[in-house]
Amino acid sequence: MSNQPLLRIAVQKSGRLFDASVALLRDAGITLSNGSNRLLRATASNFPLEVIFLRDDDIPEYVEEGVVDAGIVGENVVLEKQKNVEILERLGFGHCRLCLALPKNSVYESKTSLEGLRIATSYPRILSGFLGKNNIKAELHDISGAVEITPSLGLADAIFDIVSTGSTLLANGLREVETVLESQAILIANHKLGDAQRDIMQRLLFRLHANRNAKNHRYILLNAPNERIDDIIAVLPGIKSPTILPLAIPGWSSLHSVVPENVFWDVLEKLKAAGAQGILVVPIERMIV
Ligand code: ATP
Ligand code: ZN
Question: Which CATH superfamily is domain 96-183 in?
């Protein structure tokens, strides 16, 4: 294997994105020789991939410089670092938002209430961009951690920080007043991947898409008298027309279709009302459209 081209992908070495990043690769059928987060790198035994474990803050720069070909990192980090990388995919985990928050009892009417405030943050570039766009001048304090305690220490009038549930804000007597960015983990790549690396990336994306489509759909099987088939087809939002197979009982058929996950409960109710019986809903393991 040693002379074959590899795609080098950076993953957070420990922290909130580690488990889901490794799971994403595992679900794509990629087996890492050692998944331990204490090690710096792992090679896949069944796919031309090498995983390099890094601090999330370093990933955009390493990808920009081509030290690694690709990376999995929060969109918040990519936007803050302002590195020139290609964004390939939003990955559907690591959801959080970057918010402005003020002490519970302070006055906030609109964005202009931020004028002149001292705002503590670890995301000065994203915040500057937001303030600039809204023509607001404020005093930014660039702090690397524990941003949420700065107002109670008298060091800031407001904060701009990552929020996922809001409980940390509440515990510090703060309330959210503006959401500036909705973020999740994304797959980024170097702009000038070699041909071999680009091919491997395409293979990886094919697998990621097959998994995502599968997760977002259900397979539905049902029985119905033949005279109800038209009504049933009318409520099925399948990717193509449903499969229809005759049952052993004369005058009855079995219908099979694929239904988007986000509507399948509604569809089930309508199917029942349209005369469907013996409805089965089955998860899909992989789906290529
Ligand atoms: P590292 O040691 O790699 O620098 P870190 O402490 O900067 O790690 P984590 O707290 O592990 O980073 O968060 C990694 C990413 O997870 C964030 O950049 C963000 O995209 C996402 N995330 C999701 N929810 C949260 C949250 N509640 N707090 C912080 N980050 C979150
Ligand atoms: Zn970090």
Answer: Periplasmic binding protein-like II (3.40.190.10)
